[in-house]
Amino acid sequence: MSSFDYDLFVIGGGSGGVRGARVAASLGKKVAIAEEYRYGGTCVIRGCVPKKLFVYASQYHEHFEDAAGFGWTVGASSFDWKKLVAAKDAEIERLEGLYKKGLSNANAEILETRAELVDAHTIRLVKTGQTVTAKTILIATGGRPNPHAALPGHELCISSNEAFHLEELPKSIVIAGGGYIAVEFANIFHGLGVETTLIYRGAEILSRFDQDLRRGLHEAMVAKGIRILCHDVLEKVSEAEGGLAVETLKNGTLHVGAVLLALGRDPNTAGLGLEAAGVKMNERGAIVVDEYSRTSVANIYALGDVTDRVQLTPVAIHEAMCFIETEYKNNPSKPDHDLIATAVFSQPEIGTVGLSEEEAARRYKELEVYRAQFRPLKATLSGRAERMLMKLIVDAESRKVVGAHILGHDAGEMAQILGITLKAGCTKDDFDRTMALHPTAAEELVTMYAPSYRIRNGERV
Ligand code: NDP
């Protein structure tokens, strides 16, 4: 009989924590999980899921416009923000319920409280002040929006957290940042009729993506009417008549209804008692873990965004499954962070897996680049000036496809499938041997027979 209250205590009820708790409990372990806000975590409550619902909502006005080309006459349309938020909230509540049901069905004890470490085996439940002990502790507390405390007036701005619960849609918005959240919300707000300006410090949005996608998306967003100001930063935000005044370094002062800061996310480690337990953090406050997600304290693991490895939900879930294998199945398993397919739910969408052309050019001596840009079939009748971009990056020596990049409708769906082919180490010849599926956009991926250009020793030839 263990001398601890629990075999496993999980702090954080997001994607990674819930998966770890649920599966450990289903293996017969005595498990408790504590969450201070809502079960489901960032992804379900104020991230991926509600964001995608908002993306759908923001696309309807284009659907209505496109319908005319197919013979439809759509009557007067209007949009009700409060109705969307209420519908989204109902769905999120349903999902939160499912998360909790999964945990209770597996016999995990669900605690609705903040939990902090007292030492390597003791946890304090903040709501009651009670302390409990556990043999193993799993920290999965996620991250929070970078508040950009150095910006005068940052407290007047919102983050993605608040964007999901605005009382009213602003008439205009400035979004700071050029990453996933900035770009996705710029398209959402614009699609819902908000005059949108995105301000990014670098030369081009989405710094970690293939240059072609970055440029292509930038142009498409501008063509829709989104203002993008690169090489600029916010210097001050203050209250002004009817909204906020945003002083920028290069573009003067903008008057808008709201400012959204989307400048990355920080690990949620403040006040967790990590020092008391001896758990090491890095300079960003992220928990340092080894390849098995074990912290500097042998019985404490950490996974997901709090470890600042790859901030994506499926990665946290995968890390949780590896933790289960390692800790409870005598099968030490390292999470595999290689070739993670990812999507930006911008409009048009980005779907990508593997290396960008720029990164591949640094790693490989010779590359073949296959590139196709075309008007999707639907756009012929809708009349929408929309181009789809597809790109395969191939290592000339091994013939392996090392990067696949798509800009356009359903790019995320395609990237998921392409992820399998790259993971399996498919070569360009495998792609060539694959029969096209007609008429689809994806058939372009298997019909690009001749390279558009080559890159040798980093130079385009
Ligand atoms: P990102 O890391 O994607 O982007 C942060 C942006 O903020 C970058 O453009 C960065 O510029 C800029 N930035 C950072 N600090 C400053 C500063 N002090 N001043 C000006 N600009 C600054 O973070 P997000 O907040 O957009 O998203 C957080 C994470 O959440 C993502 O990394 C992603 O993993 C995840 N996510 C995934 C989504 C998906 O899968 N579709 C959707 C939303 C989020 P620079 O590029 O120059 O460094």
Description:
The chain folds into 3 domains: 6-145 and 266-328, FAD/NAD(P)-binding domain (3-Layer(bba) Sandwich); 154-262, 3-Layer(bba) Sandwich (FAD/NAD(P)-binding domain); 342-460, Enolase-like, domain 1. The protein is 31% helix and 24% strand. The chain has 13 helices and 23 strands. It has helices spanning 15-26, 41-46, 48-67, 81-105, 160-163, 180-191, 211-224, 274-277, 313-328, 357-363, 377-382, 411-423, 428-433, and strands spanning 6-11, 31-34, 109-111, 115-119, 122-125, 131-139, 143-145, 172-176, 195-199, 227-229, 234-240, 243-248, 253-256, 258-261, 265-267, 300-302, 342-344, 350-354, 366-374, 388-395, 401-407, 453-456, 459-460. Strands 1, 2, 3, 4, 5, 6 and 16 form a 7-stranded mixed β-sheet that branches. The radius of gyration is 24 Å and the shape is globular. The protein binds NADPH dihydro-nicotinamide-adenine-dinucleotide phosphate. The site of NADPH dihydro-nicotinamide-adenine-dinucleotide phosphate has 23 residues, from helix 6 and strand 17. NADPH dihydro-nicotinamide-adenine-dinucleotide phosphate (NDP) binds next to helix 6 and strand 17.
Measured between the Cα atoms of the first and last residue, the distance is 69 Å
Count of alpha/pi helices: 13
Main beta-sheet strand count, sense and barrel state: 7 strands, mixed
- The CATH topology annotation of the largest domain reads as FAD/NAD(P)-binding domain
What's the average pLDDT?
97
Q: Please name the CATH architecture of the largest domain.
A: 3-Layer(bba) Sandwich
Compute the CA-based radius of gyration.
24 Å
Q: Structural class of the helices, strands and pairings?
A: alpha/beta
The overall strand count is 23
Low-pLDDT segments, ≥5 res: none
Specify the overall morphology. Answer: globular
Can you say what the CATH homologous superfamily of the largest domain is?
Answer: FAD/NAD(P)-binding domain
Total discrete domains: 3
